[in-house]
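Entry 12.
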Amino acid sequence: MKKYLERELGKKIVQWARQYPVVTLTGPRQSGKTTLVKSLFPKYAYVNLENPVERDYAESDPVAFFGQFRRGVIIDEIQRVPALLSHVQSIVDESPDEHGRFILTGSQNLQLMKGVSQSLAGRTAIGSLLPFSLSEIGGGSNLWKTLWQGFFPRIFHDNLDPTEALAFYTATYLERDVRELVRVKDLSRFSQFLRLCAGRTGQLMNAANLAFDSGIAGKTALEWIAILEASYIVRRLPPWFANVSKRLSKTPKMYFLDTGLVCYLLGIGSPDQLASHPLRGAIFETFVMTEFWKHYANRGVVDRLSHYRDGAQREIDLVDEGRSGNLLVEIKSGQTPNLEWGETLRRISDIFPNASQLCVVYGGAKEQVRSGVRFVPWRNIGSLL
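Predicted 3D structure (tokens):
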């Protein structure tokens, strides 16, 4: 039997199943949701609503459908039949003390969470499973190979060629999820929009610019970005704000949630090509940001991450307020520490009265402290989390 890597979120899901009647697990397609819940609840019945036979049965006769399951059941891709959520609510309300009866998964956050909030508020725990974190794969042997390969589980488990696997992933995403979430008449234009977004990972989000380059209306660009967020392709990092005199940026930054997907969309065909690519710094920054998001998601905790940018164009890549003090992080892909990388952190750290640590995460191998700034190699990013 094939051995699967252990997921950090697993312990939290088991805990929730002892405390709530329903556990709802969201996340991008192929992030390992089904594999995880099947391994955690091996005695549960399993239904995949992507299967047209199961879906038709659930839609046509939901009472008989649920009558099959006297004990626990895993229902995969529950958003395919959203009406089932009201039936789950009725069953749960009849036996409110029966915890862990339903394990629901879904890969379209917009549709799924709308139904969950309407029918299962207070009855379900909600978690998000993102692709592997660096610690889950046991660390990386080579920076650019790790980022080029990305973190989708099947690429690791089945030793797949990343370019081929991500090409299939993208085609399936466009044909299935995009068509379901929005009426896109021209999928080739959405595909172009997706690639343009990949070229802007780690940058301030400029919907007007994206709209112009894609030949679509500004409103459409915002709608399409929302689709990418709902299907866990991208995520926005909000700006940090406080009552300070200096004018602060109100614009979020946009990041992809997998560096391998970015590389595929940009046509980066090998780790060596990535190492010399003009966007290697943005892709490295994307990697660091996703590691922070995964850390909090894997612990079932809402993160308080943001970026700082003021009117003088001074920037801090990452502000983490989710601990006893603010962690301020600059992100640099270079392999040799440079004192100038920490200069902005030192100059404006007084704006953050609770700043507990100034850090630079960089692409090198040696950890050191220089002028009050901690330089953390990419492999040691877990020490910050």
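Annotation: The longest strand covers residues 355-362. DSSP finds 16 helices and 14 strands in the chain.
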